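Reproducibility note. Readers wishing to regenerate the assembly model reported in the main text can use the exact inputs given here. Chain order matters: entities are listed in the order in which they were concatenated for prediction.
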Amino acid sequence: MNEPAAPNAPGRVGDVRRRNLSLVLDSIARTGDSKPSRAQLAAGTGLTKAAVSSLVADLVESGLVAEVGLYRDGERGRPGQGLELSSRRGVVGMEINVDYLSVGLVDLAGNLRFSASIESRNRGLAPDAVMARLAGLAAEARAAADAEGISIMGGGLAVPGLVDEQRGIVLSAPNLHWQYERLDPQALLDGAPLGVRLSNEANSAALGELWYGGGRPDFLYVSGEVGVGGGVVIGSELYTGPGGNAGELGHMVVHPDGPPCSCGGAGCLETFAGQEAIFQAAGIAEGSFKERTELLLRALDDGTPAASKAVDDAGRYLGVALASAARLMDVQAIVLGGHFAVLGQWLMPALAGSLERHAPGLLDPKNLTVSGLEHSGTLLGAAGQVIRSVIESPFEFLLAAKLA
Amino acid sequence: MNEPAAPNAPGRVGDVRRRNLSLVLDSIARTGDSKPSRAQLAAGTGLTKAAVSSLVADLVESGLVAEVGLYRDGERGRPGQGLELSSRRGVVGMEINVDYLSVGLVDLAGNLRFSASIESRNRGLAPDAVMARLAGLAAEARAAADAEGISIMGGGLAVPGLVDEQRGIVLSAPNLHWQYERLDPQALLDGAPLGVRLSNEANSAALGELWYGGGRPDFLYVSGEVGVGGGVVIGSELYTGPGGNAGELGHMVVHPDGPPCSCGGAGCLETFAGQEAIFQAAGIAEGSFKERTELLLRALDDGTPAASKAVDDAGRYLGVALASAARLMDVQAIVLGGHFAVLGQWLMPALAGSLERHAPGLLDPKNLTVSGLEHSGTLLGAAGQVIRSVIESPFEFLLAAKLA
DNA sequence: CCATATAGTTCAGATTGAAAACTAAATCCC
DNA sequence: GGGATTTAGTTTTCAATCTGAACTATATGG
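Running the prediction on these inputs yields the following structure tokens for the assembly.
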């Protein structure tokens, strides 16, 4: 869709403006509610007022930034024109999960302007059937955008599995029983200038947490779904590794003599802390995920020993994996999401204890938190990736928008 | 010393030239022996011939690049002027280790032009005493540089411990019994325009491997010294983590019920695969490192069961840690250095087996290798950091050189 | 010796930010 | 109420630096 600048591309004179457009736009995005003036942007970025004026003019003309009336900062002097990200440009976040589909309309500033979701037993369903249902939801989002006067720039689609972003292929999504499925995400938002970006669910949730949640620059996001996934955020960027598969927390080895795992290995975290493992250890075998989760929570509330032990064990082994991860990557904050967030209060004691036992003093307990975004985190992250790409490369967006 | 460009600095017109100077210089460095002409550089970088001519003129004037006579590429037409990194600019790499000190003079192209080392039982010695001995070696390197007509740009000093690069402080080097020692690395090479950069031994070894060894862009370097250290190289850059302490492979947890470790944790890799742990498990208690290593190697040669088991166990647990690391960071190649390189042939079977058991198919066995640089890897890496900083920011070097 | 091919230089033109002067719009204070 | 002051934003001039095209330099081939 948009070609990223090659790292070895020659510097041209025009690159300076590309960079400064992004710098100013990002500055406006970061300042958020306080709606900076051109003069404040100049002070904040180190650019001259003249340069900022010229850059802002381009951004306003493109529709990415809007002026929002006068704004008084100090007591004297001419008041500035407040600037903010346009609320008339949006991105559609979409999520396919095991038992539901959801969409959300997110504006440039990150506000969730519309959302909808439906239950859908997707496991084992053909990708085409799932995509057809999702297309219905996407149409709702487009209608909502029309109603609110929001122009849709693009979309993000998160799926619980390994994906090839470039080619729109789901390499493997074991929980959906999908294997090497070629989707057509573009069809969901026909005509959107930036298209639809396919992404991994855990990674999107991690990015949602980064941009619209806790907001730390460095943390490890742990997503306990059917599998145990993770997203590594370093320096406010997702670390995906040389092959794009980093963050596979679920298959870190937490016991050298542990049981065999579905991945072919042995002693993986997932065999101790995956949803299935916890349900099984707690003696809860029947029903949908939702039903079993409710049974488990009730059992924990009642203090049922098997349930408590199951969650304690999961927490302890999760602690082993996180201790190793913290040592290796020097990660100093951890955010729990998905199933782990739901189990938070029961999981934490064993987890914190295990971390302290294996990596004493390495991680401040107050940096071990539960995600507050719940299900919308993935949606926000999926949409956010497109929004960030615009903020980081506004020039490229202008081109894409002009061509369309 | 030289201030790195802030990530949020505004782009200025002059930045374009900074970047292109680096692009051209790096291009010359990469092309290596084949001594490219200006026209070839233009084709390779995407810059115009005019721009390359102008950039090369600056680089030649600064003494970083030299013309090396005519060079014929095709059959017809005017031959080009071959260009290469100057062999008259060098950096001194220095290393403090537990039982020796060493220095090396490395020219811009990465050739080791001179090296020397002395045995020195540094454990427990005062930093001042060690630095005084090292200064003697450094003086030899300077004399060698004078004799060869090499001008010294700066130096790199690697120590086996955690360091604060900026302030020249060794935060902790347990194997030397050093704790928060303020060194004065600058004194070793008084007057060198880029000063002396302090660095961690394992990290330097990893970088040495990157620039002058295997040359993969992504790998995990495992250094088995007294402790077990590591260096994570991703996208041809060292990953140091948000706090600068990434790569602490030795304290990854490889057994949830393992013995206590000196770090206060339990079940750490180091308690199974550290030098001391191996010596102890093999029943070798007395003597210097060198002597004990020789004893161990002889015992392995003889097939002594205790020694074989000690090394097998170390390999197996190392495999557990590396399997986890590979999952988490998606690392696809591993290079063994230090003690592990010495034990290579005895360690490999158990290590490879363990990796395959815990992360089957994840890592191609041919990507599990032993470093070929031996001891000079650390030296080359320490010097290389300064050399790379010049190649990546030639403009800043020009300024620094001009001020001196 | 001249056609041709390739290397490298020179020069006009375009883009862009810095610096400084200027205009615009508010408050302060008498 | 009106000038002084303060702050916001624009205009103008200038310098840096790349591109592109024309030009010069130097080789081979017939």
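We highlight two features of this model. The first helix of chain B runs from residue 13 to 31. Chain B touches chain A through 64 residues (CB under 8 Å).
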